[in-house]
Amino acid sequence: MVWLFLLFLIFLQVTLIGRVVLLENRDPAKTIAWLCLICLLPILGFILYVVFGRETQGRLFRHKHIPDNQLSRMVRQQEVDLNHCDSFPQPSLESEQKLASLLLHSGFSPLTIHNQIEILINGNDKFQALLNALEGAKHHIHLSYYIFKDDEIGADVLKILARKVAEGVEVRVLLDGLGSLSLTGNFMRSMRQAGIQAEWFFPVRFPYLTSKLNLRYHRKIVVVDGQTGFMGGLNIGDEYLSRDPKLGFWRDTHLKLEGEAVHSLQAIFLNDWYFVTHHEIQGSRYFPQTTVLQSLPIQIVASGPDSNWSSNLQGFFTAITLAKQKVYIETPYFIPTESLIMALKTAALSGLDVQLIVQGIPEHKLTYWAMHSYFEELLQAGVKIFKYMKGTFHSKIFLIDNQLASVGSTNMDNRSFYLDFEICAFMYNQALTERLYLDFEQDLNESSELSLKDIQARSSLERWKESSARLFSPLL
Predict the structure, then answer these.
(1) Is 75 in the same domain as 191?
(2) Statement to judge: residues 325 and 269 lie in one domain
(3) Full residue range of the structural domain in which residue 464 is found
(4) pTM for this structure?
(5) Of the residues 65, 126, 225, 272, which is catalytic?
(6) CB within 10 Å: which end of the chain, N or C, has fewer?
(7) For residue 225, is it left (φ>0), alpha (ψ between -120 and 50) or beta?
(8) Choosing from 30, 149, 256, 394, which is the catalytic residue?
């Protein structure tokens, strides 16, 4: 019996390896990582592959998008304008037209012109602005988050939402099934009993594990009356207000938007709602005409496993290649693709000022170790690397020269680029970009710079941990 089991195990392993290598045509780095795991731990590797490794996106998301909504009509019109005029709606974006056109086609992201943005630094700014906007809602509130906690700030938000429903406001809430797993059934029931339409995005139901468990809704979106929107890196929980003594000070960046870009946020939320509920929501009342006259071009880019393209990854890569002076990046998790590594090294070797701020106090050891394995080659190319030491670092900012800035939920890692549903705002405005540079400089003051000498002096054990974590990082 033992030899029959061993033969079956070998057959299962060979079959699985054949499927990974021959049928899925996945990223070679992912292939190597899965093969190593399967060979080292055949049974556990098989289980993990079934849950996390299968490429099932095509089947899962065949009917995710509303066939015809405001966003799709905006995209089609801009594609027609681009084909006929060979120029973008904003003449001042001539140097960024390549990037704007890319995001239009790969990210299904129209360029909106008339917008107004308020940069919200850390939790106090974000929640003060958010609670005020929720209190002022007249028609509808659409809210989606990766993490929503049943704590003090979570209760504050829930009270406002329940009160708004009583006033006749439509309230829809979409929460990730894993990120908000700590919520009790009573909390969700209290939402629904209050009249809030609350739904899970890919709920986690043990022991029924499927590949959906690895595909998470990492977006943070709020839309109030189709006129005010919020997006960025901050979820809903007390730790984001620096109230958790274990995590300490929480550094993050969020945006409050008004204007045409809110329509893009709205359309993204409604597509996600349609996928979860199969309920199509449309109408002019969800896309009211904006009164904002200020010119601030923005593209809201949603990326995820439901797309044929890694839109945010492509956007970051293209932006780096367009840079003429400097590239500044803030990201807590830095496990980049080979294309991004090459772009950053090429920019630094070309004489550009390339600076990177990452977390200095680790949240997750494996990603922290894997991140360090990339530092030596970047430092050798001239990239300056800083570790944020004041507290928990969660800000995601991407700055190019004095004209382009991006803020959103996307980390510089494989999970954000390929597995998670993410959202970023690409903003083409000098004043806004310069404002974010000031925040970057402040973060530098609270960071320590890594030197090539220090990195090269690390022990063999540290190098081994980093190399091992890097090998399996495509699976993280």
Answers:
(1) yes
(2) no
(3) 311-475
(4) 0.88
(5) 225
(6) N
(7) left
(8) 394
